[in-house]
């Protein structure tokens, strides 16, 4: 998905409580909200299992979206020039 589409969703939930974040993400019509909802569920499960924290006291302190890795290749063009091909890596 595009980082700009995911960034719109992340901006809505940054700094909110866990329960409020779940409500926002479940009601948001963007397709980018479902993977972020899964990420928030996973982070809350990790916090409760590994650190023994209560899910009611959790909040989103930091959330950011960055672009992934890009494979760069050169394609030969006319008169000795070259053209850059930027292909996103999907792992």
From TrEMBL:
InterPro entries: Ribosomal_uL22, Ribosomal_uL22_bac/chlpt-type, Ribosomal_uL22_bac/org-type, Ribosomal_uL22_sf. The keyword Transport does not apply. The keyword 4Fe-4S does not apply. Keywords: Plastid, Ribonucleoprotein, Ribosomal protein, RNA-binding, rRNA-binding. It comes from the Eukaryota. PANTHER family: CHLOROPLAST 50S RIBOSOMAL PROTEIN L22-RELATED (PTHR13501), LARGE RIBOSOMAL SUBUNIT PROTEIN UL22M (PTHR13501:SF10). Belongs to the universal ribosomal protein uL22 family. This is Large ribosomal subunit protein uL22c.
């Amino acid at each position: 998905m595009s980082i700009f589409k995911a960034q719109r969703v992340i901006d809505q939930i940054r700094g909110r409580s866990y329960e409020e974040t779940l409500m926002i993400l479940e009601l948001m019509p963007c397709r980018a909200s479902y993977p972020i909802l899964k990420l928030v569920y996973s982070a809350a499960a990790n916090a409760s299992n590994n650190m023994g924290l209560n899910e009611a006291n959790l909040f989103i302190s930091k959330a950011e979206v960055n672009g992934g890795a890009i494979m760069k290749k050169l394609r030969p063009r006319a008169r000795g020039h070259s053209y850059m091909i930027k292909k996103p890596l999907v792992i």
